[in-house]
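Good morning,

Attaching, inline, the backbone tokens for the sequence recovery test we're adding to the shared suite. The designed sequence is right after.
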């Protein structure tokens, strides 16, 4: 047993020596190896590592530790590999840089060609519009006014308050030819129209738009005077309240009644008032300076003016003279009616007609403020009977939406009829549902409110709306005077 114990002790001692020898071969000085590792880890670049490697070679040139020598050899090999990798990466970068330069050069060449092509198309479009304008001026309608012509029924001035009607005898008074070239500048704005179309198609609210971008009125005034140096204009306000009013004949068609000088003077006088000053209050609708301000330039006409104008039409058509001429009875809905109807159904608007039976009228007018950026109108004509959608800015993808609007109104008529006639159902199968193809189309992003007002005014006289975009600057002048005086001028 003693012999075995001695052999075991000797074996353990031999093993310990072997371990120590192995550690010495591997570099038994752990502190030294850790120092070398730190030096390698702290190197940031090949150059720095090479410098540190050179220092280590000098420092441990006389060292007999094989582990250090092996570590130095590995570091040298790693540096060689890194240099080769860096060279490969540099070559790849240079290659990619060359390819990028070539691609950018090609793209620049393509962009240059596109710009040249766009400029060429824009120039062609400008020349085309110039030719179209010359053609429009040359083909200006020369309509003879005939009292037996249904289109001209009600020509003259209607006093809504008293019910008086004054027939205008002026016929085809010549337009101001100097201003003919000016009218498209006052009215047509394709860029603005496309912007509103995009917003309408995307369903964006008016808050995103913030209204029509403010024009530079000083620049506009110079532009207008460059067309006609004798143009009479007034300008006032500042910032969002700035306005520019043309006190001149800007009719596009000679059959429209020429506005007198006193009409223009009156309009300017209203625009110069304080924005909160009430100019007129009828139909429980107060009209202030800030409301009529929306009728100037390319501003968006506000809902106060639209409601007031619709009520004027309805009141005029209740006069004895209008009934004698066969004008239809008109009932205009509030501008918020359709929004309430589509959000909550008939129950949300049932009380709005508590004292009125809409089925006693011929036309029901339902303004639609689409996404708070665009006005359209639905006309219910019980004489046809039918429900008709009029939109001055029809989009390519609007068909489904327009049909849904018509369906909402048909559903409303069904529920309203049951409510008024003790559950009796209306014969909706007899009703026409139509999206009007012949609706006059606007050529800017501002006049949709004007278009629905004039569409309703024409239909209220049994006339087909045949006006166009070039008539809107004149209509704005006229509507400002009409609202402030509670009078309507026809046609």
């Amino acid at each position: 047993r003693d012999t075995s114990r001695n052999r075991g002790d000797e074996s353990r001692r031999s093993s310990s020596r072997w371990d120590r020898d192995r550690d010495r071969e591997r570099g038994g000085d752990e502190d030294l190896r850790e120092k070398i590792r730190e030096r390698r880890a702290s190197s940031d670049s090949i150059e720095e590592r090479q410098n540190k490697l050179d220092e280590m070679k000098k420092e441990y040139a006389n060292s007999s530790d094989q582990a250090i020598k092996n570590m130095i050899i590995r570091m040298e090999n790693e540096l060689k590999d890194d240099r080769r990798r860096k060279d490969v990466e540099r070559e790849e970068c240079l290659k990619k840089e060359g390819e990028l330069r070539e691609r950018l050069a090609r793209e620049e060449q393509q962009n240059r060609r596109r710009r040249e092509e766009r400029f060429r198309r824009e120039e062609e479009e400008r020349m085309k519009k110039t030719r179209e304008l010359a053609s429009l001026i040359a083909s200006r309608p020369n309509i003879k006014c005939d009292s037996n012509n249904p289109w001209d029924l009600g020509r003259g001035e209607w006093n809504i308050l008293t019910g008086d009607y004054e027939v205008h005898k002026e016929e085809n008074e010549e337009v101001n030819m100097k201003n003919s070239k000016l009218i498209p500048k006052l009215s047509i704005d394709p860029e603005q129209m496309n912007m509103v179309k995009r917003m309408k198609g995307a369903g964006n609210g008016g808050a995103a738009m913030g209204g029509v971008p403010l024009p530079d009125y000083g620049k506009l005034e110079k532009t207008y005077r460059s067309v006609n140096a004798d143009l009479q204009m007034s300008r006032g306000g500042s910032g969002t309240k700035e306005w520019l009013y043309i006190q001149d004949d800007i009719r596009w068609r000679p059959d429209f009644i020429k506005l007198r000088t006193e009409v223009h003077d009156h309009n300017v006088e209203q625009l110069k008032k304080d924005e909160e000053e009430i100019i007129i209050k009828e139909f429980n609708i107060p009209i202030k300076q800030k409301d009529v301000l929306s009728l100037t330039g390319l501003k968006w006409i506000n809902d106060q003016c639209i409601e007031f104008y619709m009520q004027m039409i309805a009141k005029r058509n209740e006069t004895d003279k209008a009934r004698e001429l066969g004008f239809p009875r008109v009932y205009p809905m509030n501008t918020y009616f359709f929004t309430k109807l589509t959000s909550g159904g008939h129950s949300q608007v049932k009380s709005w007609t508590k004292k009125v039976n809409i089925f006693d009228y011929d036309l029901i007018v339902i303004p639609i403020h689409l996404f708070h950026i665009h006005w359209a109108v639905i006309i219910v004509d019980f004489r046809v009977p039918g429900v008709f959608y009029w939109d001055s800015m029809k989009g390519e993808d609007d068909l489904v939406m327009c049909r849904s609007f018509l369906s909402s109104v048909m559903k409303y008529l069904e529920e309203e009829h049951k409510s008024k006639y003790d559950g009796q159902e209306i014969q909706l199968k007899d009703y026409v549902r139509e999206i009007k193809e012949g609706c006059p189309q606007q050529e800017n992003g501002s006049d949709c409110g004007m278009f629905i007002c004039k569409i309703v005014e024409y239909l209220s006289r049994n006339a087909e709306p045949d006006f166009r975009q070039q008539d809107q600057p004149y209509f704005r002048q006229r509507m400002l005077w009409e609202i402030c005086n509670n009078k309507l001028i026809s046609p």
